[in-house]
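To: structure desk
From: M.T.
Subject: fold request, one chain
Message: Could you run this one when you get a chance? Sequence is below, nothing fancy, just the single chain.
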Amino acid sequence: MGQTGPVGWQRWDVAWQQALYGPDGFYRRSAPAEHFATSAQGLGSSGRVLAQALLTLAERHSLTRIVEVAAGRGELLRELRALRGTQGSSGVADLVGVDIVDRPEDLPSDIEWCHSTGGARLPDELTGLRGTLVVAHEWLDVVPCPVVTREDDGAWRDVLVNADGAERTGPPVDGADLDWLSRHVPGHVGRAEVGLARDAAYADLVSRVEQGVVLVIDYGHRRDARPQEGTLTGYRHGGQVPPVPDGSCDLTAHVAVDSLGADLLCTQREALHDLLGRPTLPPHELSSARPTAYLEQLSRANALATLTRPGGLGDFWWARTLRATGDLG
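Reply: Done. Structure tokens follow.
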């Protein structure tokens, strides 16, 4: 018996969905920033730098609305609100957050909020979007999917799990899941997360935008670099823990980004260098002439360096799809 109720032996995607998004699931009780730091929240001034990049991207495509899917408690939206109207970003008039929790009480009244049911399921009212940049930061990694293991004879089988996190081998994988594995997982991989649900979630998100840009930012991998033993893990109070589907921890797995069907796929390092340039330290003489400006510029340079660092956040993937606004450039 876990915090989400009796689980028994279930496929990982079923237990995962319940553990994160069930009636007493992890995300209904816990703010993401309480358990792990991301580019958008919990990493000092990095959220403001990411917001600058998103406003630049929106301006590049003459978009007037930014919708954030999996918005947490609105941390990135607050940064966007503080920056819009500055540095050539006056075109963004509307900000909208989407998350499983109710609207945060302290969220500014001019930021709209939509309630989702969690995971891949998006609100019905999130459709027909025009002039919109939709950004989903670390959303797909928490869209539950089956976990499978390869037998010695090469056959794939589902991995079953109980509420304590114990696992056992289940029935053979077949149908669309097996087709996905055959196309996207090379022979060196012995355990994997089947990304079909993430592909469908991304396609659903894209279908809701009539004119604009869809951007998913997440940690992930491409076919030739699929991890040999999968990536499913847990996080609790800032530390990595074994994945247990009892509602006590976050459950996350890297995204097979090359199977999403995005128009453009690049690393966060490449994207931010394109949108914001490379980090440069302010001139030292500014520290005495204008100390406040010097500290602000130094903080921005350090944050941009953190967000683009190889082997760290710079290796995040940006998957973009353009909907009827011309070339991404």
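Reply (cont.): The domain at 10-148+158-322 is CATH 3.40.50.12710 (Rossmann fold). Let me know if you need anything else for the meeting.
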